[in-house]
Task: inverse folding
């Protein structure tokens, strides 16, 4: 102990230069703890705890005691203050939103509201509009949502700011289709959307004026609407035109579905999502162009810092680009990081560092703590953190190779740099892609090696110059070059996507395994000295959670109409391919299979299951399972089966089955999953048990 304590204090002292890097990590622990709860705690408890922890941190700091004991106490108090503050901020954000969620379907009713957003889909599919200031015939004002999203087929005359009325229906946001699956209700709550519906008839425009959007928003909308006809006029390739519309106006719904599939399978889908890549590229184009123009004026360049003026112009240009393409959350995060980078240039500080990444993540989580659970936040910061960390470690070696290098050598270093960047970004984002989408592009290195330079050096500069070209009537040559450049990228994407084995679709990951992997990565990048070896422990836990996790053996949807079981070869079989199609697609994807195997029809059987007109019977892991289709089979199933799953209510008392899942059970608990443990026990999970009772959950027990 006499040797261990000084060593520990010495290792902790080495971390003093990296304390800022711990802020977003500790804040994330508090935010994650809040969202993991199954019930809402009293707000006064975490708020008071955060206050006293912060007060203790300030008092200890004010003493300015240099002893190791007081340094340790101050460090522990600071850690507790940041963690509890993250918890408090997440709860305050939830309380401040107060989104009113529909609890049930409205049925056919008259709906009127003001259009605040229009998401136009492919030609002929109409649009999705978001309405606020709602008046719904069958709902009282106290239970009327603040916003709803409506699918409209007739959208020719619809504009943002109009007040419309139509006959339609609104559904409550859907619950997860399986335990641990994506929680759409939580997503809708933090988007402020309380329901989703569709219009039966063409909306009637009640008001044309736009009193709530303001003149600035009207101007932005006019710019977007004026750009689309120009693109239609000068770009003949529909696919390239859809991508160009996404890059210039933010309208991604005109991109054909086959293009989306090709870009996803080739690992180039990030080029279609307006995020850090595009905002950073626009800012970079403006920065270098403005700086070039300023240094061409010798008298001005001698007396003024051209680099700082160019950085300021890049911030303004990137801000205008964000406003035109739509200020989505990922775009706002990208704008924040770009602004901090350019401010670092203005203040003569290092533009790219781990502290910059940590500061940006900390600010984003302070403003929108729910972003911690979004795939875009996780993947973008994982990629940026890993890239900055890697290049910071090899900066001196890389600079020495670049110094006094010939053109051929510099070109080779550029190819190597693009390749390494793609490999590192793919490696960093792969766990999150597998967890959220169960999808990984195998040949993304080759497609991005060609596609990223074209996007960076041709398409995005043309995108930045297209605004000026369209304003002065010289859009034709710019859009022609842009169309062919995008067309070549799409050709690369299609060529890679059709290669056999271009994608890998494994079963869903375990959440605990992902958390342990993230903890290990954070410790490896943030901790200095030999203490970084503690990252090995979460890696071991990640491997354990990965190997011990199994997919559900039986799944039942919340409606009871869709059921599935997994056979000995880990293939999931479904009772229907049409009922709850969205849920069946998610189940198949989470099980790592593309096709949905149909279980036997009436009077058919296979090696596992036998079916008749009253239901199906299968034996799995020593348990007899009955899927009852008709009440007449309930008595027999109750007496012979260990597990009874019925579409209708089961009223047989007593019933010898160990587990009974009927219509009432599913109505109370939602989608349910069953797993058979190695010791012969049955593990039952359901959505209600998984989520608990939170402000965004909709369940009969509320």
Result:
């Amino acid at each position: 102990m006499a040797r261990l304590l000084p060593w520990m204090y010495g290792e902790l002292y080495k971390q003093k230069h990296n304390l800022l890097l711990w802020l977003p990590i500790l804040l994330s622990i508090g935010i994650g703890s809040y969202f993991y709860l199954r019930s809402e705690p009293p707000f006064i408890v975490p708020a008071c705890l955060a206050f006293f922890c912060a007060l203790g941190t300030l008092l200890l700091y004010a003493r300015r005691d240099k002893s190791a004991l007081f340094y340790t106490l101050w460090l522990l108090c600071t850690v507790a203050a940041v963690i509890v503050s993250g918890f408090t901020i997440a709860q305050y954000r939830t309380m401040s939103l107060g989104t009113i969620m529909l609890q049930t379907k409205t049925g056919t009713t008259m709906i009127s509201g003001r259009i605040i957003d229009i998401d136009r889909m492919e030609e002929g599919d109409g649009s999705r509009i978001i309405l606020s200031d709602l008046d719904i015939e069958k709902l009282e004002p106290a239970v009327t949502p603040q916003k709803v999203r409506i699918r409209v087929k007739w959208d020719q005359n619809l504009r943002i700011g109009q007040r419309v009325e139509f006959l339609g229906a609104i559904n409550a946001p859907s619950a997860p289709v399986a335990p641990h699956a994506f929680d759409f209700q939580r997503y809708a709550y933090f988007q402020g959307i309380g329901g989703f519906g569709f219009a039966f008839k063409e909306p009637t425009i009640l008001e044309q004026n736009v009193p709530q959007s303001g003149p600035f928003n009207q101007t932005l909308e006019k710019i977007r609407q004026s750009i689309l006809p120009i693109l239609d006029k000068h770009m003949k390739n529909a696919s390239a035109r859809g991508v160009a519309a996404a890059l210039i106006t933010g309208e991604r719904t005109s991109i054909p579905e086959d293009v989306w599939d090709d870009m996803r399978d080739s690992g180039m889908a990030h080029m279609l999502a307006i995020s850090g890549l595009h905002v950073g590229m626009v800012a970079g184009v403006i920065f270098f162009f403005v700086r070039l123009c300023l240094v061409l004026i010798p008298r001005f360049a001698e007396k003024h810092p051209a680099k700082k003026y160019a950085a300021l112009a890049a911030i303004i240009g990137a801000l205008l680009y964000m406003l035109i393409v739509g200020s989505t959350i990922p775009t706002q995060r990208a704008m924040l990081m770009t602004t901090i980078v350019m401010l670092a240039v203005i203040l003569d500080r290092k533009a790219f560092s781990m502290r910059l990444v940590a500061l940006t993540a900390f600010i984003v989580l302070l403003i929108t703590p729910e972003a911690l659970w979004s795939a875009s936040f996780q993947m973008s910061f994982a990629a940026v953190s890993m890239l900055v960390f890697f290049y910071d470690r090899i900066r001196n070696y890389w600079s020495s190779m670049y110094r006094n290098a010939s053109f051929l050598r510099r070109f080779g270093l550029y190819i190597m740099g693009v390749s390494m960047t793609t490999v590192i970004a793919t490696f960093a984002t792969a766990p999150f892609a597998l967890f959220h989408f169960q999808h990984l592009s195998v040949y993304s290195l080759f497609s991005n090696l060609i596609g990223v330079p074209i996007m960076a050096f041709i398409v995005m500069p043309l995108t930045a110059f297209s605004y000026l070209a369209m304003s002065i009537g010289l859009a034709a040559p710019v859009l022609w070059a842009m169309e062919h450049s995008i067309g070549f990228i799409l050709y690369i994407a299609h060529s890679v996507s059709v290669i056999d084995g271009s994608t890998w679709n494994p079963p869903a990951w375990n959440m605990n395994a992902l958390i342990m992997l993230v903890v290990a990565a954070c410790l490896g990048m943030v901790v200095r000295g030999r203490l970084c070896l503690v990252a090995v422990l979460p890696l071991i836990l990640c491997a354990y959670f990965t190997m011990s996790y199994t997919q559900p053996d039986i799944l039942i949807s919340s409606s009871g109409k869709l059921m599935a079981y997994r056979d000995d070869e880990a293939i999931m079989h479904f009772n229907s391919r049409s009922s709850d199609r969205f849920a069946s697609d998610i189940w198949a994807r989470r099980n790592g299979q593309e096709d949905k195997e149909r279980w036997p029809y009436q009077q058919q059987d296979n090696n596992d299951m036998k079916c008749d007109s009253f239901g199906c019977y299968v034996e799995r892991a020593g348990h007899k399972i009955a899927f009852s289709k008709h009440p007449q089979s309930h008595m027999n199933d109750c007496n012979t089966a260990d597990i009874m799953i019925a579409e209708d209510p089961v009223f047989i008392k007593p019933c010898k089955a160990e587990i009974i899942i009927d219509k009432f059970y599913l109505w109370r608990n939602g989608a349910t999953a069953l797993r058979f443990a190695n010791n012969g026990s049955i593990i039952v999970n359901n959505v209600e048990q998984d989520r608990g009772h939170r402000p965004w959950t909709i369940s009969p027990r509320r």
The longest strand covers residues 109-120. The mean pLDDT is 86. The two ends are 54 Å apart (CA to CA).
